[in-house]
Amino acid sequence: MIKKNNLKIKEIYLKKIKILKKYNEAYFNKSRPIVDDSVYDDLKKEILQLETNHTFLKSADSPSANVGFKPSKNFKKVKHIVPMLSLNNAFDREDLVNFEKKIVNFLSLKNSDLLQYSAEPKIDGISASLFYKDGKFVQGLSRGDGVEGEDITNNLNTITDIPKVLIGNNIPSEIDIRGEVFIRNSDFKKLNEIFANPRNAASGSLRQKNPEKTKKIPLKFIAYTFGYSKKLNISNQLQFLKMLKNWGFKVNNFNKIIKGIDNLIQYHNEIESKRKEIDFDIDGIVYKINDFGLQKRLGFVANAPRWAIAHKFSSNKSTSEIFKIEIQVGRTGALTPVAKIKPVNIGGVLVSNATLHNEDEIERKDIRVGDIVTVERAGDVIPRVIAVDFKKRNKNSKKFNFPTKCPSCGSKTIKEYNRITKKFDAVRRCVNDGYGCEKIAIEKIKHFVSKEAFNIDGLGKKIIESFWELKLIRYPQDIFNLDYKKISDLDGWGNLSVANLKYSIEDKKNISLSKFIYSLGIRHIGQENAKLLSKTLKNPNKFFALGIGNNFEEIINIDGIGETQIKSLKDFFSNEKNLIVLNELKKNLKIINEKEVSKNNILGEKTFMFTGKLVGISRAEAKSLVENKSGKIISNVSKKLNFLVTGEKPTVRKINDAKNLNVKIISQSEFLKMLNTKDS
Ligand code: IVH
């Protein structure tokens, strides 16, 4: 029956491919399209959709197999069942102390004595997620934006380290194994092709359209974690790493279980000193809480787990001369000085720009044009100037005058006063808050199309800059009304790449409310705050209404949205240009209501607030428990509050306010019962 169905599907699919081929032929070879663009685009979408739903469908004439302007265009996009997250970085002891302190507080532990970490060298390669069904490798994805990756199964299939069939016991019926694809330094040296470093070589090879080419580059794979899994009975990372080995994966030989920060640092130093002897690039050590139960309780913030951190190795350094100090203007108007230096190779990467951070930093270090400086580069972090060699300074050198006017639009610049720290900001900003400043506008548009926002393939930073130059784009909405005719006349743009660009843009017209809010680049509204706002407002119209009625009451109560964010939102909505942009975007997009979390909707949007000290559980964990079950935490007693949870020594005023407003007051144990009893 299934077979019969598949045959039918294949027949439909091939028919569509045949029609597409005819359209392509007319369009590309005869330059005489026989259908409207929309008909063509719909057909392409249908084919891609079929391929997504039925992985056995393949055709050399499929749009997913065609070369575009970027290698990623060759691959079909597939959503990760469990998102692929990133890690926060630690650079020194203090960062590690803070990391552990947060864990201890979150878990409401007395001390960190019992915390065990799995310490694992962090390979600087390309991560991949391998899906095994009944022990068989069926699909491999790249990380992509973490939510959606590219189907690079065929290329991954050429890697001998990747078991095609798992061996041993306890193989779960379904599991996503995650790890790093990389190339050994010794193999890298033998390559004929020119890549800046092994990581680029691995990435380039993995994204080849032709798996035969991938095969020629000796890629390796080391496994370290999993995403989705069905029936996996393992309680900690150590066990899991052992299991990986039993199933036939390579794991890192240096992995080690460690307790205590001093020991973590010792291990870090040990591996760092061996770095040169190891035949692949590592850029730090990942520390993960070993116990899966604790990992689950700790959960995630934004894109990174609370239970893991990447402790970077100290960087590579070199010296060079500053020949110019350029002031870059960022999306939020921040003026960032960048040293243009004589290009110097630092750890395999040619560096010609190094950040000077801000005005205060230049002043403090007295950095000048013509200086010989030490430049540091740590892994994927932007290179920075760390010291000036005063002995080598030219007698005639002059202090650097930081501009007081915006170098892009000439507006006034200011340093804001921070009421909390009672200090002036170290960063100077252009006061032009919108699209009136060219540099700010360009950066805003780059942010709009960036990976975590609209994620439009083929609209990279360089293209945005060139489209700006050509006056093709001035505002975000212009992206949805591009003059494709004009673009196809540009150098380097063929019919196919224009068709691809059009397709990627059309493809992103449906967007979730949280991504939409984030994409606007409102200051202090990052991914996490955008999620908080969209979870509360749910409907895009309610977001737009903030600009009409200036009714911020609903969001003032959100825990996590403070004065700073509200002020920033008010500023945003009181700017006329922003309102025009919003209005135009509304016309072009389908902004999707934030989905209700149906699976775990136990608390059904009820709101909670805590007062007094909770016993045996931290505020942060209580908050995350509520949110995981679709409840909300608010920070004020108001009519909107459903439950005031009282711990030890609650604030009397809050209790009285709650009583006056008829808000239900419950104890900590009633609260915990509520979470548990309704759960299951
Ligand atoms: S765990 C949520 N373990 O580091 C946990 N990652 O910045 C995420 N990486 O994209 C990953 N070695 O490419 C983990 N032993 C290791 C790793 C490792 C390298 C990379 C991986 C990931 C990035 C996170």
- What is the 3D form? globular
Structural class: alpha+beta
The CATH fourth-level homologous superfamily of the largest domain: DNA ligase/mRNA capping enzyme
Name the ligand types.
2-(butylsulfanyl)adenosine
CATH architecture label of the largest domain: 2-Layer Sandwich
List the helices and strands and how they pair.
Blueprint: H1 2-29, H2 37-53, E1 77-79, E2 89-90, H3 93-106, E3 116-123, E4 126-133, E5 136-142, E6 148-150, H4 153-156, E7 174-183, H5 185-190, H6 198-206, H7 211-216, E8 219-230, H8 237-247, E9 256-259, H9 261-274, E10 282-289, H10 292-298, E11 300-301, E12 304-305, E13 308-312, E14 316-329, E15 335-346, E16 349-355, H11 359-365, E17 372-377, E18 384-388, E19 413-418, E20 423-430, H12 438-449, H13 461-469, H14 484-488, H15 495-507, E21 510-512, H16 513-519, H17 527-537, H18 540-549, H19 553-556, H20 563-573, H21 576-588, E22 590-592, E23 607-611, H22 619-628, E24 632-633, E25 643-646, H23 652-660, E26 664-667, H24 668-677
Parallel strand pairs: 2-13, 21-22, 23-24, 23-25, 25-26
Antiparallel strand pairs: 1-6, 3-9, 3-10, 4-5, 4-7, 7-8, 10-13, 11-12, 14-15, 14-17, 15-16, 17-18, 19-20
Helix pairs in contact: 1-2, 16-17
